[in-house]
Amino acid sequence: MDPCEIEFLSEKELVSIIPNFSFDMIHLISGSVGPFRAGLPVKVPIWLAVNLKQQQKCRIINQDWMDADSLNEAKEEEKLSKLFTKMPSNHYMEEAQLLLNVASDDISDADRIKTAIKDIWDIRMSKLRTSIDAFLKSEGLHAKLDHLTAMEINSVRPLLPHALDQMLRIQTGGRATQSHYSGTSQ
Amino acid sequence: MYGRKGFKLISELDLYSDILPFNEALIKEVLQEMQSLYDANVANSNAIRNDNNMALLPSVQLRHIALKRNKRCILAYIYNRMRKLKELRWELGSILPPEINTNLINAEVQWFQSYNKSLAKYMRSLGEDHGFNLTTNMVPPKTLYVEVKCVEDFGKLELDDGQVILLKKNTYHLLPRSVCEPLIRQGILEHKST
Amino acid sequence: MENNGDVQMTAENDDQEEEEVTAQSVLLAIEEAWLNEKFAPEILPHRSDLVDCMLQQIMHMEENMKRLDKEDLRLMIHRMELDRIKYVITNYLRARLEKIEKYTIHILSQEATRSSEECYLTVAELQFAKEFLTNIEMLFKTIALQHMPGNFQTFEVDTLTVKPNLQTYVFLRANDRINGIIVPGSMDEEIDLEPGSQHIIQYSAVADLVKSGAVKLI
Question: Does the entry feature the keyword DNA repair, yes or no (chain C) (predicted)?
Fold first, then answer.
């Protein structure tokens, strides 16, 4: 899947904005948004927040979890844990990128947040590589992937499923050839 | 060696991603090889049947495999050209640029028209026969409007809201994404580099 | 419907809230169907119920939007949302067409064994598949097959059939609790799926669960 499609999915997540305009509730197919009251926070999907922000119709408020100190704590926890820790959002990477890109002026500490998220991503990716390596070497047939987020899963696609498909082909191919020979040797 | 020409057909597909002129000469040669293999096999099979000359059997089997391989190569050649044509339908629309058209043989042009027709019929049937175009909205929407540069004279373009704009070479426009997408694929517009 | 040009979710239903929940849940269901179709190796049972319903919603909305002033904020927001929904539907239906084109013969022969209630293809998709096959056959015959010697002229359905690899590995998230899935390739090793848990496993082990909605591909 193209990363921009994962980003597309992440844009459904909600974020708080402070509009500089007032407007009644708007009934969208995906649910209603608003009412908008100038100066009062309201939750909207990220795709809407980004577009309103681009038109200078709102300020974007940090997601609760987009806080440098708590992210750094999460980073330490991730380092210590053998397993993947639970992330605050299934789309933490894309959300951070989208919001920091468009609203770095609204988000205090943007640089520290960016660094912390990048570090967390790097730690998790290296953990992911190690566990895939172990999984393939153990000739595993099934793995539990709890707490892996959408972009992380996508980053090992298609490599991991392909590797497993190839291993299976080699195994069953070997078996088929064997039976073939035993069949003709009589 | 049998099958070498067939292999040459396939490697042509591999070497170039564009649609080259249909290689009629080579196809003909492969077909000729098939014919002579076939004739030889008919002769040998008769000899086997009539004179019980079993020593000929391995040659017959070998030629049979060569015949099958040649058939496979030819069909793979045609099939893969068709696949590329199909991709072009989605990228460029129902009218092929002349530089592609000249490389096709009649049967391929026919196929392309039939494919167009089937696809159009299918798209018209969607949404309880109201129709739904599957060749737009092909990338995740980001912003409604995109800044584009016109790289080729196109002429007038009517937008959904009735507004008419003139697309002239080297002009810049802010246009709805859905309108731009096909024109960008056709090389008339390009994203303004920021 | 006549409420000062205010854009309503639907034109026909007085009970705004109820209808809204429905449209929203249809959208969620389409998004799930889209991802399943994208990641499943085989073609899945069609969801034209969802597609038709959503295309109708889009039409209503576009109708209503015509009544809005050009500068109305809602116009831009609705348009953006419709673009997103159209993208999902387009991508979903294209994923199906691509499979139909790739596995035409296989899909048609499978479809022939199904009753009209359990069909995987819509009427229009079935028509498209049949025409696609006829056109390929025509192409092969005109250019090559008719010039081949003797029995090599046949359009050999068996050798030309391409089948999806159902043993391919997929990522999934469980919607429900599922007990006792047998891991393919193992000595009857069984696993249980907790709701919300994520896994990688051979598609064949979960194909039925994808179709029943007990798990979703991710």
Answer: no
